[in-house]
Amino acid sequence: MKIGMDVVEAAGAKREQWDRETKAAIQQARSVRMRRREKLDTQAAAITRATAKYEQLDDENDHPEVRIRKRFVRLASARPPREDDPQPKTARELVKADVDSRPPLSRLLYRPSNALQVYLSLIYIAHLEFEPGARWANERDNTGVGGWGELCGLLAPSVPNRELNLRMTRALAKLADHDLVGVGAWKSRSRFDGFSLYREDLSRKPYLVPAAEESVILPAGFFRAGWHLVLTGEEMATLLAVIAQWGRPRSRKDADGVALPQLVRWQFYGLAPEAFAARHELEEFGLIDMVDPMDRTDGKLSATQRQADVLRAPRITPKLDEVDFSRKAIDVVAAALKKPLPPRWVDRATALRLLDNSGRWQEPGSP
Fold first, then answer.
1. What is the separation of C-alpha 256 from the centre of its chain, rounded to a whole number of angstroms?
2. What is the pLDDT of residues 62-114, one digit of tens each?
3. Which of 16, 17, 125, 355 has its CA 20 to 30 A from that of 188?
4. Whole-model pTM?
């Protein structure tokens, strides 16, 4: 009998620990959500200003799609396993080696910045102003009305010209470090003025709009609605990886969605598990559908499910052809963020009494 009670007590203790960990994860998710909502509020004017400019530049919707070279998103061949390098490395060297071996897109995720937002904006504007095969030319200032800062969603009424210039130069410096733009000599006063746009494949060749067959293709409406300005870098990288994988040959065309197993994500896309977790937000915002064959509980796997021989990746289907791009991205995301928690946490939060029956947040310990 005592053995039986020990088992019951151990099970109860394990459940209590699980509940504590789940509560902490839910509270963290809520905190992240609240910070993102606050940040979005501060960005709203700049994003709205940029999308208004897009409508002026393409007032007749003459450009139905935006092409991004596949090599920006996915490596042509798999990265070698980490253990293949026999030389011992410091933690800093390991991080640098990892980042340098990624495709350009996921390189830009290292150390958060506006660089990806700026680069995608440059590519979009290039599609509006230059026909395929025509070389890109920079005829804008970085700051001021109609400048690159405004078109990249960085110019808000409260942002002085000096701060806007700083934001643009930081982004351009990072893009230059990864051979995505060309800038002037180091420490020259006009280093970033009249910068050159390079192709997405690290070739350092002048930018040309690519052919469809060498591209990951997004609807132009995606950019007109400002999605590239609103999504996080991790969300944008995950979405482009899904679209790139969707366009690759599959053994079964009738299968629901595409899988991005962890090894594929690391070898070809350079996506860490933390970045790929952004798929949940993409689903919440209506940009993808997702089916999880492992039936993860709140995004987690049991010890058995984590075994390599049974682990299966979620199957994801892009839904961009169903999205209403007449609705601005900032409005879609702001509406989603008004809810206290991401949908995947709602059932557990209700069971743990962190949400009441009407879906309102209750602080832990509230009656």
1. 23
2. 889 999 999 999 999 999 877 666 676 788 888 899 999 999 999 999 999 99
3. 125
4. 0.90
